[in-house]
Amino acid sequence: MSKFLAEFIGTLTLVLFGCGAAVLGGDHVGQLGIALAFGFAIVAMAYGIGPISGCHVNPAVSLGAFIAGRMSAREMVIYWVAQFAGATVGAAILWYIANAGGLGGSLGANGWGEGYLGEFPMQAAFAFEVVMTALFVIVILGSTGAGSSPGFAGLAIGITLAVIHIVGIQVTGVSVNPARSFGPAILVQGQALSQLWLFIVAPAIGAAIGAALYRFNLLKAA
């Protein structure tokens, strides 16, 4: 129950801070500010709930941990339920605040194509999400594995997520996290919901690639 609650709160916070920066403060903080909001949210939660659940707050990360042999299938499913629920509640809170302030909008939903930020095609969006999720999972598994300095893992992971956003906000708004995409999409509906499949499939593939490198000892501590 503690792990479930920790993942629920952590994913809620990630969506509320990260997507909130885009929706409520994007005009003022810009792309860099949004990227840092996502990264700082992960740093905060890594030290806040990391000792309880490991601070996955991301179904792709939990999938990677499962493939790498660091958690059971049952535990992974429990994490997934908590993460999707937390992301949905976080998006709902943001929706309420934004609408109360007369902002409305997309809730920071992910997407691609005509009319979405840099208008990158689906192929570019898919490739970006696969590659960046793989790299993200590699950093997470490496910084928390044998021979690492776990006290600094939160910083490494948060900085990595911030850099991924700096690079890719114009491409997809950056998911690398199916739950982060799910929460806003089910509330916004429309194009965000119809494109949600990519932000589930591509991060899952990326997570599997990154985790397989550890599973088969292609990456291991000396």
Automatic annotation (TrEMBL):
Keyword terms of this UniProt record: Cell membrane, Membrane, Transmembrane, Transmembrane helix, Transport
Signal peptide: none
Localization (cell): Cell membrane
Bilayer topology: Multi-pass membrane protein
Keyword Membrane assigned: yes
Organism of origin: Caulobacter ginsengisoli
Family indicated by similarity: Belongs to the MIP/aquaporin (TC 1.A.8) family.
Domain of life from the UniProt record: Bacteria
Protein name, as recorded: Aquaporin Z
Gene3D superfamilies for the chain: Glycerol uptake facilitator protein (1.20.1080.10)
Transmembrane segments: 31-49, 77-98, 120-141, 153-176, 196-216
